[in-house]
Design brief:
CATH architecture: Beta Barrel
Radius of gyration: 20 Å
Order of helices and strands: EEEEHEE
Helix content: under 10%
CATH superfamily: Nucleic acid-binding proteins
CATH class: Mainly Beta
Shape: globular
CATH topology: OB fold (Dihydrolipoamide Acetyltransferase, E2P)
Number of helices: 1
Number of strands: 6
Length: 144
């Protein structure tokens, strides 16, 4: 079974970071993703989906250091749903994305990279290119 989420979106606010009694650090923040489509009149419409993200320990520290409201972020994680009760005793559910990897996608100049563009030493997730694997699909390989 697989529980995996990949998001690229913009932060709705700066991460809220706190330290628990156990010493663990947790960061919570929201990420907006957009989907564009044409409606029946041919007009472009945008649907914005908001995702609650939780990052723990070193990722929480990175979120606090690197992420700012409005900034673009790459997140890999898993979906986690929590059950809780409101003040009237009604069962409520909250769905979060628990970050397993995160990376700011904002340009930031460093001492040896003044233009702010990524360099080879920057740690970004590898996006497969067409040169990575040449695949030929025959008609009889299609599932329909």
């Amino acid at each position: 079974m697989i529980n995996k989420v990949t998001l690229i979106g913009n932060l709705g606010k700066d991460p809220e970071v706190r330290k628990l009694e156990s010493g663990a650090t947790v960061a919570k923040f929201s990420v907006a993703t957009n989907e564009n489509y044409r409606d029946k009149n041919g007009e472009w419409q945008t649907i914005t989906e908001w995702h609650n993200v939780v990052a723990w320990r070193a990722l929480a520290d990175r979120a606090e250091r690197d992420l700012k409201k409005g900034g673009m972020v790459y997140i890999e994680g898993k979906i986690s749903t929590r059950k809780w009760q409101d003040q009237n005793g009604n069962d409520r559910y909250t769905t979060d994305i628990v970050a397993l990897q995160l990376r700011s996608l904002e340009r930031r100049p460093s001492s040896d990279n003044q233009n702010g563009f990524p360099t080879e030493k920057d740690e970004f997730p590898k996006i497969p290119s067409s040169n990575d694997a040449k695949m030929e699909i025959a008609d009889d390989d299609l599932p329909f």
